[in-house]
Amino acid sequence: MVSLCVNNDDYSVFSALDAVIVALNAQNNFLASKNSWTRKLILVTDGENPIATTDYKSTIEAMNQSQVITSIVCVFPFPLPLGHF
Fold this sequence. Notes:
The chain has helices spanning 16-30, 56-65, and strands at 39-45, 68-74. It has a two-stranded parallel ribbon. The chain has one domain. By secondary structure, the protein is of the alpha+beta class.
């Protein structure tokens, strides 16, 4: 498991895409000789911070080549403001 925690104050330094790249690199290093293992990535986010859009296409391409199953879990702070949805 790889985790990259991002402070709300520091969101300009890291983004969810950075976390995906770090996790993908860690999987490639650890699972290089384990071809039968399933690669999964779970991104947990609050959906509040912007995602860097540079190089996202090459990251998606690398994930597809590695056959990474991706899930995104969005965690909202409670209570939600009225009319949030």
